[in-house]
Design a protein that fits this description.
mainly beta, 41 strands, 22-stranded antiparallel beta barrel
């Protein structure tokens, strides 16, 4: 951790000597209230659309979060299980999708009430920016808010325009995107349709998917804006290559045990619509409301020669008042209420050779409900100090109604039905010290909680077997978060943030038994996370720009439970990871325009080793790595549009890596290999209509 501090001090010496370059003010969601990123008493990072577009095909959320400190973004290269993203260790244990992280798109939750989310449903090709909030202030978002990721679709262009992006790459990658945007009077529209087709690097890893993301805005008056969001996601095929054992890492292109014989794969279909209204009641008083509804169908074939199907319906609502008061002590405040519900039919049965056979042997109705109230106040108590206080009261109910399709029939008392309620009040408190125009220091603390998801409560362990029964005995994990931070910003465009954090958790929810892709969970006793995060951007003249982020974290079980010893590392959480990049543009960059001509970047990213199980056994040790990526673009701009060819070479040194791990896999198939050296060719174009 000492190296992180020394890196920050060395960077400050460079930044203070830089010539001025006026940059626009960056505003972010600091908790539930928008304010300047520099003034926020929290670690909050913003990834803008330019970086997202420069990342390449814009398929995986992990590709655009590599520079965010505190975030471990691992690409499984397995579209059947989605990317693996954790924030300060929260979400690392997820066997698929996101877990322990709140994900919102255009103000609408993409995380279900029990804390599950799917990063693949974020349409990166039409995203304008992504904000990542970590630390205590994230707890005001409620259940499973180890961190918050918010994505915002771009605003409609003033004049009608069309955009397209086409990519081809290694292992049969084909990616296309078509987008229309424009305004007519008070109506704005963005419609984006994208496709993906890949054969995959590993055996049994091909995938196809397509997505439509459309946003329609109506400014019905000077004080009122309506936004309608429609998102359709179709993945008719995503083969699952499973994990490899440590002895099989010598053939990283191979599929795991039984993947091909069982034809392991997943099919997904999702439809979602939402409405958000913002209305200014008075000059300093605003009301925001939201409604949304969606359906998701998920069918998965497992290596156990079984299938699992989910038919989910989800919906929710929210209302939030926000205001401010000027005077001797200016105040910003917000208060709101929101409710969400997710219900799903869970079925399962036999699938020899990857084909359904016979009648289902599992049929349940699972449901999760939340009802939350929240409030936050920002007090500018003087020119030097700002207080932030907040509170969220959450109630989460999980229930399962089991049809008990077993022989002989069972009674209600011993079937898989059940119900459990979790309640929690989570306060947050923060202070910013504005001690210099270019420097801010802050401190904050907060309490959070995390309930089991419906998927985590779907199985119970019975000896060496798993039973498909609802598990109401799982407790909600509770955590106490503390953070100290320092921020620097100058007119030359240099930025720096340094944060220390400490997190203590009781009843951490961990995987207890994994059998052929099915997981039973239990509660650990105590865990502890401590770390340092450093992030910086600096302009080296008009043509060069550098950036870096480094995170050092120690995440351990701080009390023995079961056969896991005190001091064991939490799985899927490296001790160190980082990112560094040097960017060059042929033409000078300004705050108002993006440079044309040649643009080039060289990136380094790496992480230390990590464990794949709680026992930290030698066969579950994933080695660390460091790799270099090269990106080259040429942007040609003319009066009615622009065109931009793109070339990327990733993992330039062709290193063999472990991309991610499957936590506590019972047969030792922990490891999902990273890609070898790959290439991508692309073309982005935009023109006025």
């Amino acid at each position: 951790m000492r190296r992180v501090v020394l890196l920050g001090l060395a960077w400050v010496g460079l930044a203070q000597a830089q010539a001025p370059l006026e940059l626009p003010e960056v505003r972010v969601q600091s908790g539930l209230i928008e304010q300047r990123q520099f003034d926020a008493p929290a670690s909050v990072q913003r990834v803008d659309g330019e970086r997202i577009r420069a990342s390449g095909p814009q398929v995986n959320l992990s590709d655009v979060l590599t520079a965010v400190p505190g975030v471990v973004a691992l690409n499984r290269n397995n579209y059947a299980q989605d990317v693996q993203i954790s924030i300060r260790g929260f979400g690392a244990r997820a066997a698929f999708g996101l877990r322990g992280i709140r994900l919102l798109v255009d103000g609408i939750p993409a995380t279900t009430p029990d804390g599950q989310g799917q990063a693949s449903t974020v349409s990166l090709t039409s995203v304008d920016r992504i904000e990542v909030l970590t630390g205590p202030l994230a707890q005001i978002y409620g259940n499973a808010a180890g961190g918050v990721i918010q994505a915002y679709t771009r605003e409609a262009s003033a004049q009608p325009e069309a955009q397209t992006q086409l990519y081809v790459g290694s292992y049969g990658l084909r990616r296309s995107d078509w987008q229309l945007s424009g305004r007519s009077g008070q109506v704005g529209m963005v419609a984006d349709f994208s496709t993906l087709d890949t054969q995959g690097y590993r055996a049994q890893s091909a995938a196809r998917r397509q997505q439509l993301n459309s946003v329609l805005t109506l400014d019905s008056s000077a004080d009122t804006r309506h936004k309608w969001v429609v998102n359709l996601f179709e993945m008719p095929l995503a083969q699952d290559p499973l994990g490899l054992t440590s002895s099989n890492l010598g053939t990283p292109w191979a599929a795991g045990a039984n993947a091909q014989s069982a034809n392991t794969r997943k099919m997904v279909h999702q439809e979602q619509v939402g409405w958000v209204m913002q209305h200014r009641l008075e000059r300093d008083l605003q009301l925001q409301t939201r409604l949304y509804r969606g359906d998701r169908s998920n069918l998965q074939y497992l290596s156990s020669q079984n299938w699992v199907g989910l038919e989910r319906q989800y919906w929710g609502w929210g209302a939030q008042m926000q205001g401010q008061r000027d005077g001797h002590i200016p105040i910003q405040w917000t208060v709101g209420l929101e409710g969400d519900q997710s219900g799903e039919v869970r079925q399962g049965g036999a699938a020899p050779a990857g084909q359904k056979s016979g009648l289902p042997n599992r049929n349940e109705w699972n449901q999760a409900n939340t009802l939350d109230g929240f409030a936050q106040i920002n007090w500018l108590v003087s020119e030097r100090f700002t207080w932030v206080t907040g509170l969220r009261r959450s109630s989460v109910v999980l229930r399962s109604n089991d049809q008990c399709l077993v022989s002989p029939p069972c009674s209600y008392a011993d079937d898989g039905s059940g119900r459990v309620r979790y309640q929690s009040s989570n306060p947050v408190l923060g202070l910013t010290w504005h001690w210099h125009p270019q420097w801010n220091a802050y401190a904050n603390t907060g309490r959070g909680f995390e309930t089991p998801t419906l998927a985590e409560a779907a199985y119970v362990k019975s000896g060496n077997d798993l039973l498909g029964r609802f598990n109401p005995r799982l407790l909600a994990a509770t955590s106490v978060h503390r953070e100290l931070g320092l921020k620097f910003a100058n007119e030359a465009g240099s930025r720096m943030s340094l944060a220390w954090f400490g997190i203590e958790t009781q009843n951490e929810i961990v995987s207890d038994k994994v059998v052929n892709g099915q997981v039973a969970y239990t509660n650990a006793t105590r865990t502890q996370r401590q770390g340092l995060e450093f992030n910086a951007q600096h302009r080296l003249g008009q043509h060069w720009r550098a950036e870096a982020s480094v995170t050092a974290m120690r995440a351990v079980y701080s009390q023995t439970f079961s056969t896991v010893a005190n001091g064991n590392r939490l799985p899927a959480t490296p001790d160190r990871w980082g990112f560094a990049a040097l960017h060059w543009s042929q033409m000078p960059a300004t705050a108002q325009t993006r440079p044309s001509g040649w643009l080039a970047s060289v990136e380094w990213l790496g992480r230390s080793g990590m464990w794949a199980n709680d026992l930290n056994t030698a066969t579950a040790a994933a080695p660390g790595y460091g790799g270099v990526n090269l990106r080259l673009r040429h942007r040609h701009v003319w009066a009615s549009g622009q065109i931009e060819p793109y070339l990327a070479i990733e993992n330039l040194h062709n290193k063999t890596t472990v991309g991610s791990v499957i936590v506590n896999q019972s047969n030792g198939g922990f490891f999902e290999p990273g890609l070898p050296r790959t290439w991508t060719l692309g073309l982005q174009a935009k023109w006025a209509l």
